[in-house]
Amino acid sequence: MQRIGLRQNRGPWFVFEQGDTSDPIYSHPLWTLHNTVPGVYVRCRYQYSAAGVCTFALATSASQTAAAMIARADRLRDGFASAYAAIGKRFEWAAFPADFGGLFAEQAADINAFPNVRPLLNHPTDRLSTNYRGPWAPTGIAWNRAWTIEFAEALAEGLDAADLPPPVCFHLTSENGPGDEVNGETPTIGWVATALADARATSSGHLVDGVHTFAQWYSGFTGRTGGAIPAVVSPVTLDTPVGRHPVNAANTERYQTAIYALWDYARFRAFVQPIHARFSGPVAEYGAAVGSRAFPVQYAPGLYTYGLDGHFQTDSQGPSWYGGADLRDESYTADDPRWNTLTNWLAVYPNESGQQEQRLGCDIAKGIATACAAAATHAPLCPWVGTFGGAKPGMMNEYLLHCHGLGADRFNVFFPDPTDATDSDYWQARVSALSAALGIAP
């Protein structure tokens, strides 16, 4: 089967993750900029009409999702036809198969709630005896890989028939990813001991990252600068989960990054590989990015994620910044200098600006992007950006330019309401500012 090539655009691209309930403002000058690309967002759970409108009837096959994506791409092509023709811009689009691998099935019976979606991680048959998520996903990978093979085949053939270009990229949206895993070794309720006692922990058919079993990963894991991982401290101060407290950060990193390694491996096997059998557009997923021991990602003052050690099998990394900083109440400051409070972070990134928190958020996000880019140089950055965090224009300009300097070849713009002229104005200005800074004609 011939592999369909990527149609080049002058970059960096700005790919707009817009919903499927409204059309964009086709006449807005945002879309006449050379490097803006509309996203085709299709919920895998549902069917769509020939006009590309969600009917909310349950989808039952990957081919139906492909047909829906073609219908919506065709709808956008028609909508942009006049504006694009006036400036000679070629229609290009990005694929967002929303809900992929994202079904959350609390009980085995829930697996049939949406016939066209199955969990990639946390499939009922991949769980532990306690019904808690296991650190392996052969069933989830197998089902979703078969789905993607059918989807890619139907999409390629349908695009050909409709005379539509292939998508410039595929972006996933973490509908049911690793989550906030902090109870792996909490006394009495932790899942790690149960997983290690499970026969699958040593099975070559249940690998964490495509190479190691969970038992191998766990026993071979060392701290950021080498050495053994200390025992869990329990109880901890404050009313917080044991694994969330900074004193247990190294211990949490060991089991948490096993789940992140599984997420990366599962995505590669279930989506990236079969997509690249038919398309060459790069794949990225929101939040999927890595650090390493040489280039750790600082997610809180003096706390780092490093356990994947730069191992990353998806084409692009997806760190994010929407403005501001995710901070804890100042009451945590006195407990430990590593809690992510404003005071603690200002010891890392001091500033006296009138927009102290916004400035701090930008500095934190830039630091994360810098570490990710250095940790996995083979996987360029594709940062997720948006305005709902209150991103000031000047600081968003700074973040975009910084990430492009690190090698970012595109940005995913979270654009939930494409009918919002104010949001369209904002992004027209940001795209234009970056192009001007790079000496690229709009």
Write up what this structure looks like.
With about 450 residues, this protein is an alpha/beta fold. Strand 8 and strand 9 form a beta hairpin. It is built from nine helices and twelve strands. It has helices at about 60-85, 140-160, 190-195, 215-220, 250-275, 340-345, 355-375, 395-405, 420-440, and strands at about 15-20, 35-45, 45-50, 55-60, 95-100, 170, 285, 295-300, 305, 320, 385, 410-415. The strands form four sheets. The chain has a six-stranded parallel sheet with strand order 5-2-1-12-11-10. Strands 3-4 form a two-stranded antiparallel sheet. Strands 6-7 form a two-stranded parallel sheet.
Question: Brief overview, please?
Answer:
By secondary structure, this protein is an alpha/beta fold. It has helices at residues 62-87, 138-162, 192-197, 214-220, 249-276, 342-346, 356-375, 393-405, 421-438; strands spanning 13-18, 36-43, 46-48, 54-58, 94-98, 170-172, 283-285, 297-300, 303-305, 320-321, 384-385, 410-415.
